[in-house]
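Researcher: For the record, we're logging two predictions in this thread. I'll number them. Prediction 1 follows.
Model: Prediction 1, sequence and structure:
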Amino acid sequence: MSASPKRPEAPTTLRGPREYTALVTGGAGGIGRAICASLAEAGATVVVSDLDAAAATDVAEALPGARAVGMDLADPGTVASGIARIHEIADRVDVLVHNAGVSAIAPFVESDPADWELMWRVNTRAPMLLTRAFLPGMIARGFGRLVFVSSDGARAGSGGEGAYAATKSALFGLAKSLARETARYGVTSNVVCPGPTDTPMLREVGERHPDMVRKLARRIPAGRLGTPADVASAVAFLAGPAAGYITGQTLSVSGGITM
């Protein structure tokens, strides 16, 4: 049996003794932009990935040294070409943040199996494909951070989001299993679960289902919706050196709506 890779000295920032690269999917969305900014502020070189390549470029141009890669996570061929492109522009991926997600709101008995398929492709299969591509390098280098952005709706259940919750809750099992497999190599694997967060996606849902969003907001003990920055701070912490002994955990960022 080969020896375990030697772990590097713990860095004091994500720049540390060498440059660290962070890949963020859904990086042009409300939460994704905030995550990219937080990781860049911590010293990481960020690769911004998004279905909207032009928006990803806009985000990357605002961050030092960042690059953008357009990628349709629903299409495995596009994912493969995106992975190849990332290998071209970055010699490593040290931090992998699975932030992208799609949802369709409907009572389960009225939901469309075609929507199930899309959500499974983007929310479940794509994180598996990307992790499979970049995890071996983390193991070989003796350092890595996997952060899966799921949902409090997946953690606690949410009416009208059964299929979405099913695809996002799959990340819990994946993250915990990877945590057990890779902890000895200096790789951590954790899940962040945003609660109701003021994003363009939630505003769009609010336009279609205003009562649902108002009811959610009233139930939050903190008295407000979350912000993208709230979620980004949690992701940046789990991606950073201070969280090196935290793995296999699920962190709810929800203002106390779930406890």
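Researcher: Logged. Prediction 2.
Model: Prediction 2, sequence and structure:
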Amino acid sequence: MNARVDADSHPAVIDKLSRLDRFLPVWIGIAMVIGLLLGRLVPGLGSALNHVQVDGISLPIAVGLLIMMYPVLAKVRYDRFGTVTGDRNLLVSSLILNWVLGPALMFALAWLLLPDLPEYRTGLIIVGLARCIAMVIIWNDLACGDREAAAVLVALNSMFQVVMFAVLGWFYLSVLPGWLGLEQTTISTSPWQIAKSVLIFLGIPLLAGYLSRRLGERAKGRTWYESTFLPRIGPWALYGLLFTIVILFALQGDQIINRPLDVVRIALPLLAYFAVMWGGGYLLGALLGLGYERTTTLAFTAAGNNFELAIAVAIATYGASSGQALAGVVGPLIEVPVLVALVYVSLALRSRFAPQARSSSPVPDRRTP
């Protein structure tokens, strides 16, 4: 993604997006349709894609996510991390939204809206426990959020995820339902499975992005790096995103078409979840006076989920054809169009924020020539 709005230009935000970014909903819609058609019309495609994996990690999805995340993380100015880690309001707010509000909200919505569908309900609770890693960085960048803050918050929540995922899974699937007299279930996952997801989907592109900036600036200087190198790799974030969407829809295209009412039932709590988490993050950031960029980052990191981890855990525990796995897959299928729409909502709200001076030099405009 190679477009960003100037820090002090509020009007005509959409007009300042690159040609690629301006028609993002169109490209995503086309990718969804292609994925659905491939999954429906090509016999055995979903099964074949499911078998292309290494140590339980889907290779096609991994490739798409890594291609998607690398250009954005290569744009991060890692020398600005100190200004983010010193912002306690931002860090504490993110932890509360992600690890207190998020899981509790998904638990409540799943039981309220899916009381008669235990498999889907459990799948959604697992989605609520898997916090942001990959796509949230794309949504944040498109909405002109704070890149450095996004990288720090994703890393922070990833560390919490390694420690807290299994504990919260046990609490929300077994302990809390028992207290409330509801049906109990279990979850089977290991710290290594979670750490592996974090290392692959965050560690690899983060290290690659850091080394690119460090070595690129040392060899050619910051001007060359930001004016020549970054525009060349920028569009690959979109290509990776679209490839990932095609794969996701192809994997479950047959089930989505054959079980539309189930998909709608799963989608309802997800829609409510994304709206509350994003809106709550946005409201909290505005009340704390974080400014547009960090408020946007807080909102998107609160609303995003690590769908790869949720799907992997659901498949490992309940099986690839289970309702829990289907709920995990429907998660990103709903998240993608909803958060794309929220990108535009966020850009439209930008003019309501007073311009704030950044703690470091402004990010240059990245419009495509």
